[in-house]
TrEMBL record:
It comes from Capnocytophaga ochracea. It is a multi-pass membrane protein. Belongs to the TonB-dependent receptor family. Residues 119-224 form the TonB-dependent receptor plug domain. It is found in: Cell outer membrane. Residues 1-25 form the signal peptide. Keywords: Cell outer membrane, Membrane, Receptor, Signal, TonB box, Transmembrane, Transmembrane beta strand, Transport. It comes from the Bacteria. This is Outer membrane cobalamin receptor protein.
């Protein structure tokens, strides 16, 4: 009886507990969004901790859970994002924002060779670019934004508004084209990155070694850059708008002489020579005195009241700052709008962009209008996926006139921009060289514009007939249409004149059609602890180029509306041509991983090129990799929280190169009809191949041919072999991370075109194999990221890389064409493009120094002293030696990212250390007579050596003539081009969510930034910018304001 009572009580207690649980159970709902852009996240797992109650977010990121106790906790998780646990605490609505996972490598995939691979499985030298860091720089060319961010990758900016840049990965590997191969959504190309809208980019991987790039075979010897553009995401409709405005100005400029200083230096040159300075062709009168020791002092100077041009129009002596006359403040505007949406059945990404850069040089500009559509849709469940990635853009540019910055530097300052009556341009007078008026060049160039349409993209179908097997067919197209009109105007500029008969209008048009068809099959499977990933495929590539031009001379009216070739009265000439080549390739790859510890990969590619004769048409390029994830071993288990990742890598591979003319295996013969004429493609027409073989003395002549090139059917593939040793590391949950690489890169059978050899007769130029080159180097990348207790997130990362280059082999016929004295001293064993010349050993300052020095023609006090290296008592060409190399000891970059609450801050430094550059500008800044006597010179000449007034100067004394041949290549012009630049600094602020939502936005970020704000350079460098040391387009300082908005 007692037992029954106890059981009833227990049962009653259990019922009461259940009723209590039911009483406090509730429904919880909410929305899950991505923290990065506040967009809804579909498919997020939401479960009650330690219970079986769960749900997934829907299309709008919404979820509903029931029953949930007030004391429960909810766990939110999604692949690639940090899981988040939230206590319910009686709430009925819980909204969360998930943050992307940055401390784990598991599950992260990268695009490498026709497929994606897990980052933890990579065994080659692959750099994954942080696109968010790249986008913090206001650059229209995404490659420029990578400068200093990837170890082993050197980016050189040309400064122009189009944003063109030169890319080199692991140095110079060949004697011809060294550009990397770009793969954009699976379609190969080798240029035009300034035409790609950076806002469309989702990810970038740089494949630096042959073992990683060998799957791309013949065009991968110089590295591969894999670019994937954005795709649609599951969720609600999302609209993004980005805009920025940039103003740019000169970073620095050469200090040139003004009108009075110019006349002073001219006077100094004359008195140093012993000439009467008043006997000058410019009519400048000098008031000066000479003491008993023969030292002269200038008291005053007087320009003529006026000069006259060819027509007698007066030109009043001026003080023209020619650099100021051709330049302005630059303004850049960028607008980008994108729309994305998706479901589990498919998605799309649409974008429209406009970019316009009004350059620093007047009348130069670059604009780009781009549109993109990326879609993919699933059919029959997940069996078939179809889609396309397609972009079309139109670029337009007015480039600067040829060497306009040099023209502005050397233009004489006392010449006015225009004549006094304004009818003609100012220009040279008698006694001056015939140099063009820079302002006229800029003005007349304003309508010389090119327009370029480019359509680029691919369509694909992916079939999954059985589990783990994927068959993909990808057809890509790259079409370009280039059109340019060049107008030449008549003018009068001083004593220079070009009349109507010299006017012309020239039209140029080119079409490039490239198509690529790749078919691949992948099959991935596991056997116990072994995991296999296999790939097999074939690829076809075709390129056809067509170009033509027409030119009409003598135009009655010189307005752009009228200046067309068909309206010319002086004759019309034209020309054109076409060329093309094809590639056929077969390839395969297998990746193997055992227990996620031991990794191996093998690749084989077989390429055939129409550029080679059938005997050498095919090249085979193998590669293999090994890897060991030491951190996954059992003996590392106890320290895994400290040592998160240690991976040792080894790779070996070969790539090919076929960068020669399309018809280099054939003898080429050209017809040149007539002795004179203006041939667009053939120059002056001096190669006459028409003969009066019938002796008629009149009428049309029979036309023959001349050989212009020797063919070589023995040409074969150039091959680059790379060996790579690598280490990847991560500590403290990968908060401290990085990699170290050492590589040896050897190229043999380099394709080279020796210079013309007269002994072989006319048209003897010929491509041959025979050169060899070697590059060795280190690459180190390291970073640390974490978050303080106060909520400050930080990520600081740096990289440094070295590369040592040397030429190991050259054909006998070409060995002296790459430097040296043409006798016993050549480039072999030295870096390619090394400098060869004399060693300048200061200047002669006393008669005693002159008397003790060996014979040197033209030596004198104040002149450069050159070393007699062979000690034969005479300074001549046999005393030349190797005086510099264009490759730095190392290049480096440092990036800092900070986030605190709604603020973000980025700072990026980039530098080059110990690189020898040729500063040719010194020929204008340090000498009166080395080049362009009577042209303007630099203000450094005011500090030239004088035995009485300036005996400590190391700048040679002002000389009327260059008797000492000081324009010769010597160490006087070789300077240290080291620099450290603040490439970018940016401060951003994101409005709080509640504020953004009140103005109907999901996100609004505002930012300001600056680029190239300061440069630290070597004290020995005398130019304006070591990155662009001579006469190129100036690299500007820029200031930017922008916004990122999401709707």
């Amino acid at each position: 009886m007692m037992s029954r009572k106890i059981n009833k009580r227990i049962l009653l207690s259990l019922l009461l507990c259940n009723c209590s649980g039911a009483l406090f159970a509730q429904q919880v709902k909410g929305v899950v969004k991505a923290k990065s852009d506040n967009s809804p996240m579909m498919g997020v797992s939401v479960v009650v901790k330690h219970k079986t109650v769960g749900a997934s977010t829907d299309f709008d990121g919404k979820y509903t859970l029931q029953p949930v106790a007030a004391t429960d906790s909810l766990v939110f998780s999604y692949i690639g994002y940090k899981s988040q646990t939230v206590a319910v605490k009686g709430r009925k609505e819980i909204n969360v924002s998930l943050e992307e996972e940055v401390t784990t490598l598991e599950g992260v995939t990268v695009s490498v060779g026709y497929r994606t691979e897990r980052k933890t499985d990579l065994t080659g030298a692959v750099s994954v670019v942080k696109v968010n860091e790249m986008m913090s720089t206001a650059e229209n060319n995404p490659m420029k934004a990578l400068q200093g961010r990837v170890a082993g990758m050197q980016v050189t900016d040309n400064g122009g508004p189009a944003g063109k840049a030169t890319i080199r990965i692991r140095g110079i590997g060949t004697l011809n084209n060294n550009d990397p191969l770009y793969i954009i959504d699976g379609v190969p190309t080798q240029g035009g990155m300034h035409e790609l809208n950076s806002n469309d980019i989702e990810s970038i991987q740089v494949l630096r070694d042959a073992s990683a790039a060998s799957i791309y075979g013949s065009r991968a010897a110089n590295g591969v850059i894999v670019i994937t553009t954005k795709k649609g995401r599951n969720g609600v409709l999302k609209v993004d708008f980005d805009h920025y405005t940039t103003v740019s100005m000169f970073h620095s400029r050469m200090k040139m002489l003004n009108a009075n200083e110019y006349a002073q230096v001219l006077w100094k040159a004359a008195v140093n020579r012993g000439n009467d300075p008043n006997q000058n062709a410019l009519g400048i009168h000098y008031d000066y005195t000479t003491d008993a020791n023969g030292h002269s002092t200038l008291n005053n100077l007087y320009y003529p009241r006026e000069y006259f041009d060819k027509t007698g129009s007066p030109m009043l002596p001026s003080n023209t700052d020619w650099f100021k006359e051709i330049t302005r403040m630059g303004v850049t505007e960028s607008y980008n709008l994108s729309v994305t949406n998706g479901t589990d059945k498919g998605n799309y990404f649409l974008s429209l962009g406009y970019y316009n850069n009004d350059g620093l040089v007047k009348n130069t500009d670059f604009s780009r209008l781009s549109a993109r559509i990326n879609t993919d849709y699933k059919l029959f469940g997940d069996v078939v996926t179809i889609g396309e990635n397609f972009t079309v853009n139109r670029t337009s540019e007015v480039e600067q006139p040829y060497q306009i910055t040099e023209a502005a530097m050397i233009a004489v300052p006392f010449i006015p921009v225009r004549t006094q009556d304004g009818k003609h341009w100012g220009g040279p007078v008698n006694g001056l060289p015939d140099r063009q008026n820079p302002a006229r060049l800029v003005n007349d160039n304003k309508n010389n514009r090119y327009n370029y349409w480019r359509m680029f993209g691919n369509a694909f179908v992916n079939i999954k007939p059985i589990d783990k097997l994927n068959i993909r067919s990808n057809f890509g197209v790259d079409y370009g249409n280039f059109y340019k009109r060049t107008l030449n105007h008549s003018y009068i500029s001083g004593f220079m004149e070009e009349g109507k008969e010299k006017t012309f209008s020239q039209l140029e048009q080119s079409h490039w059609t490239k198509w690529n068809w790749a078919n691949t099959a992948t099959y991935d499977f596991e056997l116990g602890k072994s995991r296999f990933e296999t790939l097999a495929g074939m690829e076809m590539f075709s390129q056809d180029d067509i170009n033509f031009s027409v030119k009409g001379t003598t135009l009655a009216l010189e307005t752009p509306e009228y200046m067309w070739p068909n309206l010319a009265t002086g004759g019309i000439t034209g020309g054109g041509g076409a060329t093309g080549y094809k590639l056929l390739s077969f390839f395969g790859k297998i990746n193997y991983a055992y227990d996620n510890k031991y990794l191996a990969s093998a690749t084989l590619r077989h390429d055939g090129s129409s550029r080679f004769a059938k005997e050498n048409r095919w090249g085979t390029f193998p590669a293999f990799n090994l890897g060991w994830r030491l951190s996954q071993e059992a003996f590392m288990e106890n320290i895994r929280n400290t040592v998160s990742e240690i991976k040792l890598r080894f790779g070996w591979g070969q790539n090919g190169n076929q960068e020669i003319g399309n018809y280099s295996i054939y003898d080429i013969y050209d017809p040149y009809y007539g002795v004179t004429g203006d041939y667009i493609w053939s120059g002056t027409g001096i190669w006459n191949t028409s003969y009066d073989i019938e002796g008629k003395g009149s009428g049309q002549l029979a036309s023959g041919f001349r050989r212009s090139r020797l063919g070589n059917k023995d040409l074969k593939w150039e091959t680059t072999t790379q060996t790579n040793f690598g280490l990847d590391f991560g500590f403290f949950n990968n908060n401290l991370y990085g990699s170290v690489e050492y590589y040896i890169k050897k190229t043999k059978d380099i394709l080279v075109e020796p210079p013309y050899a007269g002994i072989k007769g006319e048209g003897a130029t010929q491509w041959v194999n025979g050169a060899g080159m070697e590059n060795k180097g280190w690459e180190v990348s390291v970073g640390y990221r974490n978050e303080t207790k106060g909520g400050l997130k930080y990520d600081i990362n740096a990289n440094v890389s070295t590369n040592k280059n040397k030429v190991t082999e050259l054909p006998e016929s070409v060995v002296n064409a790459y430097g040296g004295n043409g006798k016993w001293d050549n480039i072999l064993g030295r870096p390619y493009q090394s400098y060869y010349g004399y060693v300048a050993d200061g200047i002669f300052k006393t008669q005693e120094e002159l008397d003790q020095h060996p014979i040197q023609n033209g030596k004198g006090i104040g002149r450069i002293r050159y070393r007699d290296l062979n000690n034969d008592g005479v300074v001549n060409e046999d005393d030349r030696t190797w005086i510099g190399t264009p490759y730095p000891d190392f290049i480096y970059g440092l990036n800092l990212n900070l986030e605190y609450k709604n603020f973000d801050f980025t700072l990026f430094l980039q530098g080059v250390q110990n690189v020898d550059i040729i500063n040719d500008v010194k020929k204008h800044t340090d000498f009166w007579s080395v080049v362009d006597t009577y042209s303007n010179k630099g203000r450094r000449l005011l500090d030239a050596f004088d035995p009485v007034t300036n005996p400590d100067s190391d700048i040679p004394s002002v000389a009327y003539t260059d008797d000492n041949n000081e324009g010769r290549m010597s160490t006087y012009y070789v300077e240290n081009g080291s620099y450290l630049k603040l490439r970018n600094v940016q401060l951003g602020y994101t409005l709080p969510k509640e504020v953004s939502e009140r103005i109907k936005l999901s996100k609004l970020r505002l930012y300001v930034s600056g680029q190239n704000l300061f440069t630290i350079k070597s004290k020995s460098f005398t130019g304006k910018d070591p990155e662009n040391p001579n006469y190129g387009y100036p690299i500007p300082i820029t200031f930017t304001m922008g916004l990122n908005a999401s709707f």
